[in-house]
Design goal:
- With 533 residues, the protein is of the alpha+beta class.
- The chain has a domain of 204 residues: Roll (Dipeptide-binding Protein, domain 3), CATH 3.10.105.
- The chain has a seven-stranded mixed sheet, with helices on both faces. Strands 4-5-7-6 form a four-stranded antiparallel sheet, covered by helices on one side. Strands 14-19-13-18 form a four-stranded antiparallel sheet.
- A hairpin with a 3-residue loop joins β8 and β9.
- α6 packs antiparallel against α9, α7 runs antiparallel to α10 and α12 runs antiparallel to α13.
C-alpha cells in the first residue's frame, strides 16, 4: 500500500498480531486540525468522548501489560508503552524516511555519532520538563538493564553527550549509526519521567510525555488512558479517553461487539459473517506490513539443502493460502517488501511461483525422491497461522512432504530455546530495515543462530544507507535477492487488517494500518473519532 509522506503526528492504537501472540495493538497518521468541527455529512465529533477498543490484554508475563520500557520483556510491548511515552522518532514509512516525534530532527554526524534535537518545551505527565538530560538518563537506564529483547544494535551504545537542553549526541563504540536509528523509534530510547523512575513506580503508574496519561488498569480486563493536554501534538488527539477493553480475538471479540461492550475491534476475516445483520456494525479492511512465514534451520537436514528449501517454496500455492486464511484480502508474500512498495522486486516473486512439478524434481535431486517429514510450531490460538498451516499441510503432501503441526503457549521458549520442532511458522511484526534483523546472529528469533558473513555484509549496507536513498534501494534489492536465491526463509502471506465498529457511536471508516515502532503493527486510532449524542 502506498502511503503519503505527510508528517504523522499523534500516537495511535491497537490491532495486529504479536510474537507473544495475544493480538497486539496499533497506530497511524495525522487527521486534519479542523476534524473536530461539525459537518453536514454526519454527526459532530465529541473531542471529550471515550473510545472503547477491544484488544486482548495478555501479551506479557508475569505482568501481562508492560508499563516500564526498562523492564519490558517483549518487543511487542511497544504498542502499550507508546501511549505513555511516545518515541523520539517515528519509523520510516514505505519511502524509508524517519519522521519527527518527541525529537523534531536528527542528524547522522558520522558513522559513530547521531545528533538528536528535541522539540522545545516538552513536558512529562507529572509536570517535569523533558530535556536532553532526561533523555540521556532514560536511555542509559534502559541500556543498563540485562534485557535479551533489546535490538542487538543497542549493544553498540558507548555514551550520550548533552550539548544543550534540547540537543544530545549518541556516541557508538563502532560504526553503525544507521543501524542504530531504528532504536530512536523503539523501546530502547523511550524517555520516562525522572521522578517516577527514581521512585521505581513506573510499573504501577507509568509517567511519560506521550499522548495519553495512565488512569486505571484492571489486570486482563481494562486499561484506561486519558488525553494528555500538554502533549506536543495534543490537537491531533481527538478523543478524551481511550479504554482498551480485553477481549480475545475470534468469537469473544465478535461477542464483545455484538453486546456493545466495545465500540471498535479488529476481527478475523473468518468472523466477518458474525457481525452481519447489524446495521450499526460496519466493517473496513486495510493492508498491513507484517507477514506470515516459516523459519527454517539451515544447518540441519533436510533444510540444510538448498534444493529442499526451494522445493518447499514451489510447493506452496499462495493464492490458495490467501483465500483460505484471509478470504482473498491478503497478498502473497515472496520477500520482505510487498508489491506496490518502492523496494519490491518482481523477479524475486517470479522465481518462487507455485510449481509442484518442479518441487518434486528438486526433492529428487536433493535425495528426497520419496519426500520427508518435518514439524512446525505455531503460536497457540492464533487463527491465521492455524488455518495457514492446515492448508500448507495439504499442499506439501501433494509433493510427498509430511508436515506435523504443533502449538505453543510459550512460543519463545519452545521454539528459540528448547527447539521442540524443526521449523516455526509465526507472524512477523517488524517492518522497514528491521526486516533484516531476522538473520542477525545476535537476534533471539534467528532460528538455529544462522550466521552468514555475506548476508551480514549485505544487511550492513541496508542499515548504512541513507533512508529512502537510491543506495538503500540497491542494498535492499541485493539483500532480498540473496535471501531468495538461497531460500533462507519461506514467506507466505501479507495479511489484511479487518476492523469492525459501531457506526452510530464512532467513525472508523477511514482507518488504515501503519507500521509504528520496530516491532508492532498498529491501527490508526487518530482516524477514529467518537460521535456526539
Amino acid at each position: 500500500m502506498k502511503r503519503s509522506r505527510k508528517r504523522r503526528s499523534a500516537r495511535r492504537v491497537v490491532g495486529a498480531c504479536t510474537l507473544a501472540m495475544a493480538m497486539a495493538v496499533t497506530s497511524l497518521g495525522a487527521p486534519s486540525a479542523n476534524a473536530t468541527r461539525s459537518s453536514a455529512k454526519g454527526p459532530a465529533i465529541d473531542p471529550n468522548g471515550t473510545l472503547r477498543f477491544g484488544v486482548e490484554l495478555n501479551n506479557r508475563s508475569p505482568q501481562l501489560v508492560a508499563f516500564d520500557p526498562a523492564t519490558s520483556t517483549s518487543t511487542t510491548d511497544v504498542w502499550n508503552l507508546a501511549f505513555f511515552y511516545d518515541t523520539l522518532l517515528y519509523p520510516p514509512l514505505k519511502t524509508g524516511a524517519y519522521e519527527p516525534g518527541l525529537a523534531q530532527s536528527y542528524k547522522v554526524v558520522d558513522d559513530q555519532t547521531i545528533e538528536v534535537v528535541l522539540r522545545p518545551n516538552l513536558t512529562f505527565h507529572d509536570g517535569e520538563k523533558l530535556d536532553a538530560e532526561a533523555a540521556k538518563a532514560s536511555i542509559l537506564r534502559n541500556f543498563g538493564t540485562v534485557n535479551s529483547s533489546w535490538n542487538p544494535a543497542f549493544k553498540n551504545l558507548d555514551s550520550i553527550e548533552v550539548i544543550s537542553p534540547t540537543v544530545f549526541r549518541i556516541h557508538l563504540t563502532e560504526p553503525g549509526a544507521y543501524a542504530f536509528l531504528p532504536l530512536l523509534s523503539g523501546r530502547e530510547t523511550m524517555v520516562v519521567a525522572p521522578a517516577a523512575a527514581a521512585a521505581s513506580t513506573l510499573e504501577q503508574h507509568p509517567v511519560g510525555a506521550g499522548p495519553f496519561e495512565f488512569k486505571q488498569y484492571d489486570r486482563e480486563q481494562l486499561l484506561s488512558l486519558t488525553k494528555f493536554k500538554k502533549y506536543w501534538n495534543a490537537k491531533k488527539v481527538r478523543i478524551g479517553q481511550l479504554d482498551l477493553v480485553s477481549s480475545v480475538s475470534g468469537a469473544p471479540r465478535v461477542a464483545a461487539l455484538l453486546s456493545d461492550n466495545v465500540d471498535v475491534g479488529e476481527i478475523d476475516v473468518s468472523d466477518v459473517g458474525g457481525v452481519d445483520g447489524r446495521d450499526d456494525l460496519k466493517v473496513k479492511t486495510a493492508p498491513v506490513d507484517q507477514f506470515l512465514y516459516t523459519q527454517l534451520c539451515k544447518s540441519e537436514p533436510p533444510f540444510d539443502k538448498l534444493k529442499v528449501r526451494q522445493a518447499f517454496s514451489h510447493a506452496i500455492n499462495r493464492d490458495e493460502l490467501n483465500q483460505a486464511v484471509y478470504g482473498g484480502l491478503g497478498t502473497p508474500a515472496y520477500m520482505a517488501w510487498a508489491e506496490e512498495t518502492p523496494f519490491y522486486v518482481p523477479s524475486i516473486a517470479k522465481q518462487q511461483k507455485y510449481n509442484p512439478k518442479l518441487a518434486r524434481k528438486l526433492l529428487a535431486e536433493a535425495g528426497y525422491k520419496d519426500g520427508f517429514s518435518f514439524s512446525t510450531m505455531l503460536v497457540a490460538n492464533y487463527p491465521p497461522t492455524e488455518t495457514l498451516a492446515t492448508v500448507l499441510e495439504q499442499q506439501l503432501a501433494k509433493v510427498g512432504i509430511t508436515l506435523t503441526i504443533e502449538q505453543s503457549t510459550n512460543y519463545a521458549q519452545d521454539v528459540w530455546v528448547d527447539r521442540k520442532t524443526d521449523t516455526a511458522t509465526p507472524p512477523w511484526v517488524r517492518s522497514g530495515v528491521e526486516n533484516t534483523v531476522m538473520f542477525d546472529p545476535g537476534f533471539q528469533a534467528n532460528l538455529c543462530t544462522y550466521n552468514d558473513p555475506k548476508l551480514n555484509a549485505l544487511r550492513t549496507k541496508v542499515l548504512s544507507a541513507v533512508p529512502g536513498s537510491p543506495a538503500q534501494h540497491d542494498a535492499w534489492t541485493a539483500w532480498m535477492k540473496y535471501v531468495a536465491d538461497n531460500m533462507l526463509v519461506i514467506y507466505h502471506l501479507y495479511p489484511a487488517a479487518v476492523l469492525a465498529f459501531h457506526s452510530d457511536r464512532v467513525d472508523a471508516s477511514k482507518f488504515g494500518s501503519l507500521y509504528s515502532g520496530p516491532t508492532a503493527q498498529f491501527l490508526d486510532w487518530t482516524t477514529m473519532t467518537v460521535k456526539k449524542g
